[in-house]
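Q: What structure does this chain adopt?
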Amino acid sequence: MTDDQSPTPARPLLRSPQDGEFIDVAGVPHFFRLTAEHTGGRFAFEEFCLAPGTIGARPHVHEGHDEYFYVLEGELTLHTGEDEVTAGPGCLLAATRGTPHGYRNAGPVPARALCLYTPAGYENYFRDVHAAVSAGAEVTDELLAEFRSRYRTTSSG
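A:
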């Protein structure tokens, strides 16, 4: 546990549907239901929604954490390093450390999914990008690469 993380509560933590941190990153809404502050750094949990034709994340690789995507509604087109697959409701993608991945909504309806990060901390990437854009920065591949590098993540593909 790092200094900026609180210890895990001694009892279960109930989060109501509206409880969480909304972070808009370049027009993609991320709703973090749990962050490092809630889990002692163990994991973070978010819900996101992608409009049709929207890129959620260009191909990239994490060296410091794993991500698990679970599709609730619609379809996500998932980059798997070598090709792309379409994942509908109930599909689960495990993007473990060192695995190239990315996702977009190539379908005609909004896609809604969950993402679990373990360990937590990558939610700070979203906070950083949001803060930069709010301060007037333009979202470019270079800007995203700069912020990704802070969290042991590189672009791929």
